[in-house]
Amino acid sequence: MHFQLSEETEMLRAAVRVFAEKELAPFARERDERGVVERKVWEKMAGMGLTAIPLEEQYGGAGGNMLDYAIVLEELAAACPSSAAMLAAHTSFAVWPIRCHANLGRNGKFNSRLAALAEGGSLGGFAAPLNEDTLLAEPDALQGGYRLNGIAHRAINAGTADLVILFVRIHKEGAKQGRLTAFAIEKGRPGFHIIPGAAKIGLKGVSTGSLRFENCRVSAETDQLGRFGQGRAMAVSAAEIGNIGAAAQAVGVARGALSAAVDYSKTRKQFGKPITRQQGIAFKLADMLTQVEAARLLVYQAAWRMSNEMVCAREAAIARKISAQTAIAVTLEAVQLFGGYGYMKEYGVERMLRDAKCLESDFATGGMELASSSSILTGQTE
């Protein structure tokens, strides 16, 4: 890949950094404590044109690429990881599946849904109970689709989303194993209820919960993404962009913690001089910077490959793994460097450590841990 970013991408980075520092950073602690990202924050991101970065302009997107998308998420996560995670779930798990798998052009309803998501008028959510049988889909002869009953756990953006992409395992008569199929379901549909989720240790501003369905009807014609049983392939595609998004967020969190540590070290004095002039502290900061830069290059490589329609499952998985480890290591070092202040909410680094740990988990990819150690070794997603 070329290591010189385009002028347009650099301008995008600069604009998003200013936005993040002005609009997101001052209230990041408050969002963490309240456990919610305000709708007005989403509207401001929409006004910036951030709600569909990698989507073509003809569908209402920004016409950017995956590298632009990764850079945007990094900048947002450096200021407010919860806001970045909300955008990542919307783009990776709602916008992208519709763009790649819906019958656009022939199905006007999906075109209008995608346009609303791209413009930010609608916020997308996601639920994928891939390995659970808590949600059942029965054929509905009257509607030409299915009736959903049961619960889908760990839905991202659950309480705030206007539309949710739901993966359902459908068992047809005579089949030993259900076939995974995806649907787009709007909030407020009869039989569709949201159950508030349990409190998380990190990314608290991202609304999570469970989705309960009681004879909720979905149509194979207007709600189903792709063909029956194609959900596994969709999940693989979503996992790749999801890994890139989670990796970019992890780099942003690590960079935010490093920046806080550097600023603090310049003002904290011991033995009559700033601690940055003490060799031990300087070594720590240099190590932290090295880890952030290395992780960022892995993210850029994966995003660049996806932008150029190259196989990227292995690269995305590696970037996700290393970036998550980097975020935890760097934020933990920042907490220790702050000393006793590192454990106080006022200084923010304890929140960054909690957010980093959450990004390491499968929460950051919607519960889809399809990019496992075997995919790193083989370059294929299970």
Automatic annotation (TrEMBL):
Record's keyword annotation contains Oxidoreductase: yes
Pfam family, one: Acyl-CoA_dh_M
Domain Acyl-CoA dehydrogenase/oxidase N-terminal: 6-103
Entry-linked Gene3D superfamilies: Acyl-CoA dehydrogenase/oxidase, N-terminal domain, Butyryl-CoA Dehydrogenase, subunit A, domain 2, Butyryl-CoA Dehydrogenase, subunit A, domain 3
UniProt catalytic activity: a 2,3-saturated acyl-CoA + A = a 2,3-dehydroacyl-CoA + AH2
Gene Ontology molecular function: any one: flavin adenine dinucleotide binding
Keyword terms: FAD, Flavoprotein, Oxidoreductase
Domain Acyl-CoA oxidase/dehydrogenase middle: 143-216
Family: Belongs to the acyl-CoA dehydrogenase family.
Name of the protein described by the UniProt record: Acyl-CoA dehydrogenase
Protein species of origin: Paenibacillus radicis (ex Gao et al. 2016)
Lineage: Bacteria, Bacillati, Bacillota, Bacilli, Bacillales
